Amino acid sequence: MPQKTLGTKTVEVDDQGFLKNTADWTEELARLFAADIGISELSEGHWKVVKFMRERYLKNGDSPSIRTLGKESGVNTKELYALFPKGPAKLAAYVAGIPKWLHIPTWIGGIPGMSALVSWRMRKSIESLDIPPIGEFLELIHDSGCGMYACKATVDMFKMTKADFVSPVDDIITVGEFYEKAQGGEIIFT
Questions:
Q1: Which region is the signal sequence (predicted)?
Q2: In this predicted structure, what is the pLDDT of residue 105?
Q3: Among 38, 109, 121, 146, which one is most buried in terms of CB atoms within 10 A?
Q4: What is d(CA 66, CA 110) in angstroms, rounded to the nearest whole number?
Protein backbone atom coordinates (compact mmCIF):
# COMPACT_ATOMS: atom_id res chain seq x y z
CA MET A 1 0.00 0.00 0.00
CA PRO A 2 1.47 3.41 -0.95
CA GLN A 3 2.25 5.79 1.87
CA LYS A 4 2.71 9.53 2.02
CA THR A 5 4.63 11.49 4.61
CA LEU A 6 3.32 14.96 5.40
CA GLY A 7 5.27 16.79 8.07
CA THR A 8 5.80 14.15 10.75
CA LYS A 9 2.72 12.10 9.78
CA THR A 10 2.82 9.07 7.50
CA VAL A 11 -0.52 7.85 6.13
CA GLU A 12 -1.70 5.23 3.66
CA VAL A 13 -2.88 6.70 0.35
CA ASP A 14 -4.35 5.36 -2.87
CA ASP A 15 -2.48 5.37 -6.19
CA GLN A 16 -3.42 9.02 -6.76
CA GLY A 17 -2.28 10.19 -3.32
CA PHE A 18 -5.74 10.46 -1.71
CA LEU A 19 -6.12 9.31 1.90
CA LYS A 20 -6.95 5.58 1.85
CA ASN A 21 -8.82 5.36 5.15
CA THR A 22 -11.18 8.30 5.74
CA ALA A 23 -11.25 7.47 9.47
CA ASP A 24 -7.56 8.51 9.67
CA TRP A 25 -8.49 12.11 8.78
CA THR A 26 -7.98 14.90 11.30
CA GLU A 27 -8.03 18.68 10.96
CA GLU A 28 -4.26 18.64 11.46
CA LEU A 29 -3.94 16.19 8.56
CA ALA A 30 -6.22 18.43 6.46
CA ARG A 31 -3.79 21.32 7.03
CA LEU A 32 -0.89 19.10 5.91
CA PHE A 33 -2.74 17.93 2.78
CA ALA A 34 -3.63 21.57 2.01
CA ALA A 35 0.02 22.63 2.37
CA ASP A 36 0.94 19.74 0.04
CA ILE A 37 -1.13 21.36 -2.75
CA GLY A 38 0.07 24.90 -2.07
CA ILE A 39 -2.61 26.18 0.32
CA SER A 40 -0.57 27.58 3.20
CA GLU A 41 -3.51 28.35 5.48
CA LEU A 42 -7.08 27.06 5.45
CA SER A 43 -9.51 29.98 5.66
CA GLU A 44 -13.08 29.87 6.97
CA GLY A 45 -14.22 29.32 3.36
CA HIS A 46 -11.84 26.38 2.93
CA TRP A 47 -13.13 24.77 6.14
CA LYS A 48 -16.74 25.29 5.10
CA VAL A 49 -16.10 23.38 1.86
CA VAL A 50 -13.93 20.67 3.46
CA LYS A 51 -16.47 19.98 6.20
CA PHE A 52 -19.32 19.91 3.66
CA MET A 53 -17.35 17.41 1.54
CA ARG A 54 -16.72 15.14 4.55
CA GLU A 55 -20.30 15.31 5.83
CA ARG A 56 -21.70 14.52 2.38
CA TYR A 57 -19.27 11.64 1.87
CA LEU A 58 -19.88 10.12 5.29
CA LYS A 59 -23.66 10.42 4.82
CA ASN A 60 -23.99 9.29 1.16
CA GLY A 61 -20.72 7.55 0.38
CA ASP A 62 -19.91 9.76 -2.60
CA SER A 63 -17.79 12.84 -3.27
CA PRO A 64 -19.91 15.88 -4.17
CA SER A 65 -19.66 17.33 -7.69
CA ILE A 66 -18.61 20.92 -8.35
CA ARG A 67 -22.24 21.78 -9.04
CA THR A 68 -23.39 20.35 -5.71
CA LEU A 69 -20.59 22.21 -3.94
CA GLY A 70 -21.61 25.50 -5.57
CA LYS A 71 -25.29 25.03 -4.73
CA GLU A 72 -25.23 23.43 -1.29
CA SER A 73 -21.96 24.15 0.53
CA GLY A 74 -22.65 27.85 1.10
CA VAL A 75 -19.70 28.80 -1.14
CA ASN A 76 -20.48 29.86 -4.73
CA THR A 77 -18.69 28.41 -7.75
CA LYS A 78 -16.52 31.46 -8.37
CA GLU A 79 -15.30 31.44 -4.75
CA LEU A 80 -14.69 27.67 -4.94
CA TYR A 81 -12.24 28.24 -7.80
CA ALA A 82 -10.56 31.03 -5.81
CA LEU A 83 -10.20 28.72 -2.78
CA PHE A 84 -9.17 25.60 -4.71
CA PRO A 85 -7.76 26.66 -8.12
CA LYS A 86 -7.45 24.02 -10.86
CA GLY A 87 -10.23 21.73 -9.64
CA PRO A 88 -12.22 22.56 -6.52
CA ALA A 89 -14.02 19.22 -6.19
CA LYS A 90 -10.82 17.16 -6.59
CA LEU A 91 -8.63 19.38 -4.38
CA ALA A 92 -11.29 19.78 -1.68
CA ALA A 93 -11.75 15.99 -1.63
CA TYR A 94 -7.97 15.61 -1.25
CA VAL A 95 -7.88 18.00 1.74
CA ALA A 96 -11.07 16.48 3.21
CA GLY A 97 -9.51 13.02 3.19
CA ILE A 98 -12.18 11.45 1.00
CA PRO A 99 -11.70 9.54 -2.25
CA LYS A 100 -11.94 11.22 -5.60
CA TRP A 101 -14.75 9.89 -7.76
CA LEU A 102 -13.41 6.92 -9.73
CA HIS A 103 -13.94 6.39 -13.46
CA ILE A 104 -14.49 3.04 -15.14
CA PRO A 105 -11.33 2.15 -17.07
CA THR A 106 -11.55 2.71 -20.82
CA TRP A 107 -10.78 -0.92 -21.66
CA ILE A 108 -14.03 -2.14 -20.11
CA GLY A 109 -15.89 -0.62 -23.11
CA GLY A 110 -14.47 -3.42 -25.27
CA ILE A 111 -16.46 -6.10 -23.46
CA PRO A 112 -19.50 -7.08 -25.58
CA GLY A 113 -22.71 -5.48 -24.29
CA MET A 114 -20.84 -3.27 -21.82
CA SER A 115 -21.48 -0.07 -23.78
CA ALA A 116 -25.25 -0.63 -23.75
CA LEU A 117 -25.21 -1.59 -20.07
CA VAL A 118 -23.17 1.46 -19.06
CA SER A 119 -25.38 3.76 -21.17
CA TRP A 120 -28.49 2.36 -19.49
CA ARG A 121 -26.87 2.76 -16.06
CA MET A 122 -25.80 6.33 -16.82
CA ARG A 123 -29.33 7.29 -17.87
CA LYS A 124 -30.64 5.88 -14.57
CA SER A 125 -27.94 7.71 -12.60
CA ILE A 126 -28.58 11.02 -14.36
CA GLU A 127 -32.21 10.77 -13.33
CA SER A 128 -31.18 10.59 -9.67
CA LEU A 129 -28.20 12.97 -9.68
CA ASP A 130 -28.04 16.71 -9.70
CA ILE A 131 -26.81 17.05 -13.32
CA PRO A 132 -27.37 20.54 -14.71
CA PRO A 133 -29.03 21.23 -18.04
CA ILE A 134 -26.57 22.40 -20.73
CA GLY A 135 -27.45 26.10 -20.34
CA GLU A 136 -26.81 25.99 -16.61
CA PHE A 137 -23.63 23.95 -17.14
CA LEU A 138 -22.31 26.64 -19.51
CA GLU A 139 -23.11 29.29 -16.88
CA LEU A 140 -21.14 27.29 -14.28
CA ILE A 141 -18.15 27.17 -16.61
CA HIS A 142 -18.39 30.89 -17.34
CA ASP A 143 -18.92 31.83 -13.66
CA SER A 144 -15.81 29.85 -12.69
CA GLY A 145 -13.76 32.33 -14.73
CA CYS A 146 -13.26 30.28 -17.88
CA GLY A 147 -13.39 32.13 -21.18
CA MET A 148 -15.58 30.60 -23.85
CA TYR A 149 -14.83 31.37 -27.47
CA ALA A 150 -16.14 30.24 -30.84
CA CYS A 151 -13.70 29.26 -33.59
CA LYS A 152 -13.72 31.88 -36.36
CA ALA A 153 -12.95 29.36 -39.13
CA THR A 154 -15.90 27.18 -38.10
CA VAL A 155 -18.19 30.20 -37.70
CA ASP A 156 -17.24 31.44 -41.20
CA MET A 157 -17.61 27.98 -42.73
CA PHE A 158 -21.16 27.61 -41.38
CA LYS A 159 -22.02 31.26 -42.03
CA MET A 160 -22.85 31.97 -38.41
CA THR A 161 -22.68 35.14 -36.31
CA LYS A 162 -22.20 35.81 -32.59
CA ALA A 163 -26.01 36.03 -32.28
CA ASP A 164 -26.18 32.30 -33.08
CA PHE A 165 -24.38 31.41 -29.83
CA VAL A 166 -25.48 31.24 -26.20
CA SER A 167 -24.70 34.27 -24.05
CA PRO A 168 -21.72 32.79 -22.14
CA VAL A 169 -19.68 32.72 -25.41
CA ASP A 170 -17.35 35.69 -25.02
CA ASP A 171 -16.29 36.22 -28.63
CA ILE A 172 -15.47 34.68 -32.00
CA ILE A 173 -11.69 34.42 -32.36
CA THR A 174 -9.01 32.88 -34.57
CA VAL A 175 -6.77 30.05 -33.41
CA GLY A 176 -3.88 32.52 -33.07
CA GLU A 177 -5.97 34.82 -30.86
CA PHE A 178 -7.00 31.83 -28.77
CA TYR A 179 -3.40 30.80 -28.12
CA GLU A 180 -2.50 34.41 -27.21
CA LYS A 181 -5.36 34.50 -24.67
CA ALA A 182 -4.47 31.06 -23.32
CA GLN A 183 -0.73 31.75 -22.99
CA GLY A 184 0.34 30.80 -19.48
CA GLY A 185 -3.08 29.33 -18.75
CA GLU A 186 -4.49 25.87 -18.73
CA ILE A 187 -6.19 24.88 -22.00
CA ILE A 188 -8.98 22.40 -21.42
CA PHE A 189 -10.80 22.34 -24.78
CA THR A 190 -9.49 23.54 -28.15
A1: none
A2: 54
A3: 146
A4: 30
